[in-house]
Amino acid sequence: MSATASKLRELKDLPGPRKIPVLGNLHQVTPARLHQDAEAWHLKYGPFFHIRLGVIDMLVVSDHQVLNTVLRDRPDGFKRAPIIEELGREMGLPPGVFTANGEQWKRQRRMVMAGFDPSHVKAYFPSLLKVAQRLRGRWQGSAGKSLELQPELMRFTVDAIAGLAFGSEINTLESDDEVIQHHLDKIFPMLFKRIMSFLPWWRMVRMPADRELERSVAAVMKAIEGFIADARQRLAADPARRANPPNLLESMVVAADEETSGVADIDVAGNVLTMLLAGEDTTANTLAWMIYLLKRNPETLLRAQAEVRAVAPDVAGFTPEQMAGLRYVEACAHETMRLKPVAPFQVIEALRDTVVADIRVPAGTQIWCLMRGDSMDQRHFPNPERFDPTRWLSDNGEGSGGDGSGDSRQMSPGSAKRVSMPFGAGPRICPGRYLALLEMKLVMATLLAHFDIEDVTTPDGGEAQECMQFTMMPVGLKMRLAARH
Ligand code: HEM
User: Fold this and answer.
1) Which tens digits make up the pLDDT trace of 368-407?
2) DSSP H or E stretch at residue 472
3) What ligand 1 atom has the least distance to the C-alpha of 343?
4) In total, how many domains does the chain have?
5) pTM for the complete prediction?
6) How far apart are CA 123 and CA 126, in angstroms?
7) Which of 107, 158, 317, 382 shows the greatest Cβ crowding within 10 Å of its Cβ?
8) What's the CATH code of the domain at 430?
9) What is the best residue among 113, 227, 423 to mutate for testing ligand 1's pocket, by most ligand atoms within 8 Å of CB?
């Protein structure tokens, strides 16, 4: 950001696809492939280019160093694009830490982080383990059958987050009834559809899908009221819990009850919803991609299997230490997130006039952060298309360090992490990242210790297609398992 004023470029000086009146570039993108459309432009126009989606001008950035700089300049320099909160509110969704900005975000982030501190996550390990054991039971019962991979994994992630964050047992793994994620699943796709709409059709005419959404939002909000009522009941029954609330929801309720906290009941509901939405698809989609990539790369599957069967052979006895010992499995997760980041872009808005690289950026400009550009660049990762988890292990098999040389062949795992940022960066980096990694290791260890993966198939037998629905998911993966013992 040191370019002198005279050398600064304006947004309109930047390269970019040709725009037509009114639509700009909107007619050139397909919502389900939005990220891939933008990545194709990145290959053509380079790390900084200009697009216009309807009336919104955007600076697209894919250079990882510049992305690091802008994402770190929050909350003062940039905020999340307000459209998510605006449309979410209109759908009846109370805002939470993901959509909040400014002072409100600072308060909510502090509150949420308290629930995610490592000691808390560690104390929760036994409950998380119970969920993994239920997953084993469910899969044992359906050995040999073709399972829809992503919904299976969502059952795990929703049960896991409900226990940790809300102290509630949801147990969707052992239920085939109307489960909460059937309703949650309606929310992201519709929110994304509305974000991508040129015209707000839903304000003019309500289609069956809009009515279905309303029913789902009502069902989710009712479930959330239930979580909050249960938490209040537990606090009333045992007032000692107020001094040291054992889960995120109870600590939020305690905070909301203090007049000076600045936390209102609506913040509590908003953050329960945020945890459910932010923690469910992201982790389940990443796991689905990981299982798919391992099956397509048999040598990596064999190594992951060997590690699990040596380090953590039985879900009945998994310990936090065993999970920490799954270094190769963790490397598989990092490599999966490099190739298949489930949040391949995010949009932020400048809060003041500023300069990004050598580009003048007036307040109010939207920046589209394209997160997979440099992660797929030969300069940073040789053979970038290859699924090679060893990139994330240093020579001694550990997963840390950083030489900062920028030489891809010697790139250490520490340097690689500065290029591939699947959890974002800076003060708003994903607070659930350690939990997500632990959940992923638990699922992979359960899967590889107790089952052989017979096949993972796509609908047309070709490569799995990426579909953007707020998060990026694989389309239609099915898995068949054989139980080992
Ligand atoms: C593989 C799994 C996950 C991925 C890839 C992921 C990715 C992300 C990304 C890219 C962001 C935006 C970060 C930024 O603005 O720089 C984010 C934010 C967030 N994530 Fe995650 N996430 C995952 C799992 C989770 C889980 C399990 C939870 C909690 C249960 C969670 C809760 C949140 C919250 C609350 C935010 C908003 C933070 C803020 O704005 O201050 N995420 N996540």
Assistant:
1) 999 999 999 999 999 999 999 999 997 655 543 333 333 3
2) strand 471-474
3) 10
4) 1
5) 0.92
6) 7
7) 158
8) 1.10.630.10
9) 423
